[in-house]
Amino acid sequence: MVMMKSVVLVLLLQIYIVCTVRYQPNWDSLDTRPLPEWYDKSKIGIFLHWGVFSVPAFKGAWFWYEWKTQKDKDVVKFMEDNYPPDFTYADFASQFHATFYNPDQWADLFEASGAKYVVLVTKHHEGFTLWPSAASWNWNAYDVGPHKDLVGALADSIRNRTDIHFGVYHSLFEFYNPLYLQDVANKHKTQDFVRNKALPELYELVNRYKPDVVWSDGDWNENSTYWNSTEFLAWLFNDSPVKDTVVTNDRWGKDANCKHGSFWNCQDKFKPGKIFKHKWENCMTVDKKAWTHRRQIQIEDVLTIEELLAEIAETVSYGGNILINVGPTADGVIVPVFEERLRQMGQWLKVNGEAIYETQPWFEGTDNITFHGVWYTTKKQGNSTVVYGIVTMWPQDNRLLLGLPVTTATTRVTMIGVKEPLKWSLYKNIAMQIEFPLLPPNQMPCKWAWVIKMENLKNQ
């Protein structure tokens, strides 16, 4: 009885300590905050780049900057050929109608994709907000264009129709905001833009929409001290309405990149090529050339489902999450080829999701003994540990050689979606040889990438 009371007291003390932790506005303190479990378990998210840049739908989200500052010849010619000389970038906003925007349909698609979280670009570097921000007068989707709260509509649909976590992307800096440009001219001795625009928007997003992800960007020119990032994050983790569930990335200043944050992006399409000690995320695109919808997209620009699944397998096997971007049109449509990829991914995950969700890396790298690119994950199942091998190419002779697993007399091998166990043997005492099942096409568990499940390995 005394021992039981002691255990209870210790547990209560631990709970008390966790509940009374106050994170200080410095990186040393903020970096001690544990990563909420939901994020690591989720593995797969959907990224949505949507804004005024979706109206010209030419090149990408940096269209305005490429036109006016970089004088990109293709962008300049596009404007000269299609718009009058006095046309401004702001004139595009009235054409951002979101006519066919149906957030319920989006939510249903994301659920069908198997994604566990969604991150919507609520304001990119152009400064246009997709919600009626008090800090963005007449340059937001409520005052001009759709005349709707696009952020709130999607947040409501996702929460009402799915178990997906909702997140927001927010760019700290803006290309041509006068307050920002004045701070730059003052060599950042002033912070008028931060105090009057960037931070008010962040507080507004969190208090109004209660996102589980705050995905920051536009941080590369200044240190986090200019952005007052640590002050905001201390509030986010201590006092915000999502303090216990929210996660953030590392883009809070050029001194924070790949060093601080709940998870690290480090750079776009980041893949470390090894198991990373800190939680990381690979934000990438289905369109190989852009983050936004492009009217001139060609089918060869789009990742095949085989390429996408290989990207997922590699990312998860190294301990990362993958944030898969599709850019909606200005009308609010996710084009059919993007929808197809997301639904194909969902079909695959419906069969093979146990090898992705809630898993951990098993081995550093791919098993290339047969050059098939086998990516490994592992997880606990009951009292045992299971190892998964994600095979991105079906072996031509129906025999797969694996050099990493060490077998025992009780090793059991199955293919997820196939009832009968697979036969295996030792090949020249250097590899495990697995015989793939001979199945007609209509009995295949999936069309792309197959998962081998191994139990009772010696080195599991």
In short:
By secondary structure, the chain is an alpha/beta fold. It is 30% helix and 17% strand. The protein has 2 domains: 319 residues, Glycosidases (TIM Barrel, Alpha-Beta Barrel); 94 residues, Golgi alpha-mannosidase II (Immunoglobulin-like, Sandwich).
SSE topology string: HHHEHHHEHEHHEHHEEHEHEEEEEEEE
Count every beta strand, where a strand is a DSSP E run of 2 or more residues: 15
> Helicity level, as a percent range?
25-40%
Instruction: Order the strands across the largest sheet as they lie in space.
Output: 5-4-3-2-1-7-6
Instruction: Give the number of helices.
Output: 13
Structural class: alpha/beta
What features would you describe in this structure?
With 460 residues, the chain is an alpha/beta fold. It folds into two domains: 37-355, Glycosidases (TIM Barrel), CATH 3.20.20; 362-455, Immunoglobulin-like (Sandwich). It is 30% helix and 17% strand. The chain has helices at residues 2-20, 27-30, 37-42, 63-68, 73-82, 103-113, 150-161, 178-185, 192-209, 224-227, 229-238, 305-317, 336-352; strands at residues 44-48, 117-123, 165-171, 213-217, 247-248, 280-285, 320-326, 360-361, 374-381, 384-391, 399-402, 412-415, 424-427, 431-435, 450-455. The strands form three sheets. It has a seven-stranded parallel sheet. Strands 8-9-10-15-12 form a five-stranded antiparallel sheet. Strand 2, helix 7 (150-161) and strand 3 (165-171) form a beta-alpha-beta unit. Helix 6 crosses helix 7 (150-161), helix 6 crosses helix 13 and helix 8 (178-185) crosses helix 9. The protein is globular, with a radius of gyration of 24 Å. This is alpha-L-fucosidase. It comes from Magallana gigas. Keywords: Glycoprotein, Glycosidase, Hydrolase, Membrane, Signal, Transmembrane, Transmembrane helix.
